[in-house]
Structure formats: C-alpha cells, structure tokens
Amino acid sequence: MNYFYEYCPEGVKSKYSLLVFDHQDQPFLPLTDFYHDCKGRISDSSALSYLQTLLPFFTWLDQHSNYQGRRVQWRDPPEAMRVAIEDYLMDEMSCKVKEKDTFCFVRLTQKSPDTVNRFLSSVKSFYKSMIYLGQYTYHNPLIDSQAILNDYRSHSEGVRTNKPRMPLIGGTEDPIPTRRLTDSFFKLINEEWQPQIIDDPYLPYQVYQAGKKAKWSDREMVIARMLFETGARASEIIELTIGDYRARKSFQEVSTFNKGSHGRKVKFLRFSKDTVKHLMHYINSERKQIDPSHVGFDHLPDDAPVFLTNWGTPLTYEAWYYHWNKAMQRSELKINPHKARHWFVTTRMREVYNISKTEAEIQQRKDELIKYMKWKNADTIKVYEHYFDEEKHRQAHDQMLESMEKSEREYNTNRKAKRKQKLQLTLIKSSSELEFDQDLQELLDGLE
C-alpha cells in the first residue's frame, strides 16, 4: 500500500484541510504538517505538487530503503538520509550520481523523469519545514554546509590576509558577484550523463609526483596507487577492513562494497605487487604506530579498518580528501579523485583493443570489464567504445593519408625522370626489311 492523502470532508471541523496517510492507512502528520506549512509560503498548487512528489519517496523509504542493514526513517541523521536519497535517485529515477568534494552531482539519463528537479526541491523544502516546526533535530540533509561556509568566507574575507573586506564604497576591493552557487548537497546538472575519456598514460605518475611534493604519507600514496590500479571509487578503498584483504585468495586482491550494495561486499579489487609492498609496509609501520593496540597485520582483527587517521580512528573520505586536494592545488593539477576511475576504464579499453585479435575476443573482454566494474547499466561502456571507434578511424585515415602522400611523391619523382629522357625513334629504311600482317600494313599506311 502506498502513501496517499484525502481532503477533509465537508461539514467536518479540522485544522487540516488535507490529511496524509501512510502505507498502513494511519495518519502521517509529518507530511500533513509539511503541506500546510508550505501553503503559508507558496501557492496551493505548488504545495500539492511537492506533496505528490514526496508520496512515492516515503513509500519507497518504508519498503525498499536500506542503510546499515535497516530501513531508513525520515528522522534519521543526514548521512543516512543522503544515502537513501542517492539510492532513490539511481534506482527509481535512473539518474547518475557522482561524488564531488563535499556534495554530489546528479545527472539525468534518457530514462530519468522530468520530476527529478522537483523531487530534490520537495525533499529540501520538507526538511526545511520539519526543522522550522521543531520535528527534525539535525541540519537539512539537502544542504551542503561546507558550501555555505566557503561562500561566507569568500564574501567576508578581504584581499589582506586575515582581514575583513573593506566597504564597497571604498573601491579598494572587487565587488562581490551577485550570483552565488547553490547550497544544495545534490546539484542537478541538466544534461545527460557522459563518462569522461581520460587517455593520458602519464596521469597516475603526475599525481604520485604531486603527492611527493606535498609530503604524502604512505597512507595517501597507497590509496592513490589503488585508485588508478583498481578503478574503484575512493570510498570503496578508504573504508576497507583487514578482513576484506584476508577474504581473497590472492594477496593482490581485496573484497569491497559497491555503490548501491548497502555495504555488502559484492566485488573485488586487484592491484600490483608493488602496491602490495607499499600497503603491507604502511600497515606494519605507519599504521602500527598510531593504532591503539600497536599490532601488525597478523594480529589485527578482521573488522579493523585498513586506513586510520593520525588519532587512530577510522579514516573518512573528508579527512583523506584534504590531503588529496592540498597536493593537487600545490602542483596546479585540476584532478578530482573520480578521474582516476575514468582513466582506469579508458586504459583497460585500450588494452582490450590492442591485445584482442577477433571481434569475439573484444566482446568477451568488454563483458569481463563490465562485470569487474559492477556497472548496473552495461550501456555505460558504449561511450568508451565510441571513443575508440573514432580512434580506429583516425588511425585508418592517417594510414590512407600517408599512402596518398607516398603516391604523390612517387608520381612527382617519375614525372621529373620522364622529362629528362629524350624520345628516340627507330627508323626503318626499307619496308622490305620486315614483313607485316596485311591488316597492320593497312594501319601503317593510314598514318602517313
């Protein structure tokens, strides 16, 4: 049964003109209060549109949401709600969601409904009302608090170090732009999602060098190497446990979760022997020193996190990203962590085309890559295929142009050589010296 609403019957006195019911036909006051709060701020039609957009989402929360093994409730903390909203955007609205610093980009696909933007606005407005009415005790999950902080800093700090901005009338500092970036945690990009093609063979080594300049520890270097060698998302590496490493037979592999798997270890990552050495060195030296138990790999429990902060607590994405961003800025590289994933796929696709001898081998290896990446939509690989189809055309076209240039050189060389040769004729003194066929003789006679 789905969430639904009913208008107050005529003749019945109630402070609510509309009442929302949950999947068990019980009155659901949070959405009821939200609707009536909206009516005081926006038009009745817009308030009803927001409510109608939220009803399927709340139904989905009760029936299909999952966060750490349980259903998500609307009163849960922001991190749980964001996971639920992200899952709903991907699974129910066919969107592509991509992590970006402290927020997420939401890209539409051909299957996405026209209501994605309205859905995000509705959820954001719902929590705004709940906070105002005192029914939600956390900050709005749909608001990127970091963006608000950065915006405040940019509008309050002056060009002088640790000094506030001078008054506008002073004319000593550039005016503040009137348009500000959205503070939404889920930022909708109104275009269909396309994966990036990053075909620079030296990209990983540029990142490693940037890390060395920023004096990365073994931890940051290991994570960076694993990003490029495995094609995994940063969170899938940062949240690894010792048990994830022990779960695989090969010492070059670990088990990990996938986006949308709700923590279940549904895929594996594979990396180089050199990275294995770096990883074990980190665990048995740098990590051992900051771990409260001060033990190495052999004595760590399976649930122990592989990567720790300097305070001995599990490493988080935000704590790790600080070091990544610092290194990229210092080396003036505009590279976010997710580009390592695109680089991995592009590089693997190039290998597929280089080592495969038949179309059947190409298709087999592409299917293996799709399974390894755990792509829900196999069509994701088509953009990379298109890129390499264009590459093959360029190569074939270049070969044709080279052949044309070679033929042109040969033609010019032969033409010059023929000019230098003098035309020499052999004269026949007497026709009696040779005997000709009758028809040939008539032809020769006709040429005189």
Automatic annotation (TrEMBL):
The keyword DNA-binding applies. Keywords: DNA recombination, DNA-binding. This is Site-specific integrase. CDD domains: DNA_BRE_C. It comes from the Bacteria. PROSITE patterns: TYR_RECOMBINASE (PS51898). The keyword RNA-binding does not apply. SUPFAM superfamilies: DNA breaking-rejoining enzymes (SSF56349). It comes from Brevibacillus choshinensis. Residues 197-398 form the Tyr recombinase domain.
